Amino acid sequence: MKFALLSLLALFVSLSSALAQEFASYRAFRDSLNRIIALPNPNDRNIAITNFLNALQAANKIPFAMGDSVAFLYRGAANSVRWNGDFNSWGSVSSVQTNGTRLGDTDLWILEQTFPSDARLDYKIVLNGNTWILDPRNAFQQMSGFGPNSELRMPNYVFPPEVIRRPNVPQGAFSPNQLINSAHLGYAVQYRVYIPAGYDTLSNLPVVYVTDGHEYANDQMGSMLIVLDNLIHDGAIPPVMAVFIDPRNPSNLSQNRRMQELPINPLYLRFVKDELVPRIDSLYRTNPLPSARAILGTSLGGLNSAYFGIAAPETFGLIAIQSPAFWYRPQILTMYQDSARRPIRISMTLGTFFDGQNEARQMRDILRSKAYQLYYREVPQGHSWGQWRGLIDEALIYFFGVKSSAPKEQGAKPIRHKLFGNYPNPFNPTTIIRYELSATSDVRLELFDVVGRKVATLVNARQSAGAYHFSLDASRFSLASGVYFYQLRANEFSDTKKMLLLK
């Protein structure tokens, strides 16, 4: 018997790495864990659990997710273990069961849930009812306004490539904090200005005004400077400026005034419209038309964007709304319902793990009934910077999307492999994908849907150095409206870009 148990333990130790990385099914994962928990010898069981968890952790598979199933795991002495996060509004929704279960006579706790296979959610572990910690075995984290959270990435979640800083992409300039004394607000406001690379040779630039600007500009939160650099470099949008408005008191950064400034505040509107915008237009080479000026915000900032659209369309013609807190001031719905259609274009995005979803959908229906130009998208995520930063590019491309770049002179040889942004983008039903090869290469150009499934192979050939284009016809592949990714692989080169199909 002892020999049999030792053999079983040796089997688990030797196979734990393979089991952690490749299970035939979620059930197979759970059965393997059950067999370990059932080992009768406490020392053998302890060793097997340690090896099993270490193998999962080494493969970045804690939490363990397969298909739409996920197992949150925590090991340690505790009287209770709970997982709070986007999936239960951080503990405020008691109907969602997130209490862990201790497995047998061990110190291993588990919570099993099902989520969409492409979900991305923030969470923390709560020990003994009051000690909140990051998941010690999960390397993935997302910064929030209150510090880092652990991050669950379900198997088909696609990390947004546009938030990754690339060494070959020229960076725009980002000013120090600037102060403006507002007569309307009665206090000073600080802001920072992003100007794109090559600004000295540019003119007539569109401008995006960004509320909660200190967080949107943070590379660990909104990542918007990175997104702008990448989209401009790739030709997905023209050079664009951005003004990041900081809601914090410049004399006391711990005092955040967003709760007073953003919820339908006419004085804040007058500050931005009558004081800040004229200053920016006088100091920079901007395009002063409302069709080239956007307001962007999330949560209360999304509410503020909607308010700017209905109250000041002569100043802001492009309205970017992320996870709007319409529930906080539901009269915004009536303002749009009872008013004539404004000459504005609106982008509204949100996560399905979000308390304000009902009001956002009501606004969507109002806007559609009034024939507003609207881009609307929901993703299986929560009220988090992980969601917001991953969708900034869609608003920018919807507002400003242009041809990727001017064609090269005939006969000019590219100096490197490059994949360009498609044009037009958004598109319906056709768009052009352009790429360049600096040397003869084995080329694969493939199209994927938003959950990472391959939709089509567009190019599979050996091609010589030069410039190429592929005309994609969505009707040929029966593509539905939504987000798609196209990936170019040429020898060791690989790059992926995003496109929007709007029918």
Structure description:
The chain is α+β, with helices and mostly antiparallel strands. The protein is 27% helix and 32% strand. Strand 19 (345-351), helix 10 and strand 20 form a beta-alpha-beta unit. Helix 1 packs parallel to helix 3 (42-58) and helix 5 packs parallel to helix 11 (385-400). The radius of gyration is 25 Å and the shape is globular. The model is unreliable at 1-21 and 403-411 (pLDDT under 50).
Give the topology.
Blueprint: H1 2-21, H2 26-37, H3 42-58, E1 64-66, E2 69-75, E3 81-85, E4 101-102, E5 108-114, E6 120-127, E7 131-133, E8 141-144, E9 147-153, E10 173-174, E11 178-182, E12 187-195, E13 207-210, H4 213-216, H5 224-234, E14 241-246, E15 248-249, E16 252-256, H6 258-261, H7 266-283, E17 293-298, H8 300-311, E18 318-322, H9 331-337, E19 345-351, H10 357-369, E20 373-379, H11 385-400, E21 418-419, E22 430-437, E23 441-449, E24 454-463, E25 466-473, E26 482-490, E27 493-501
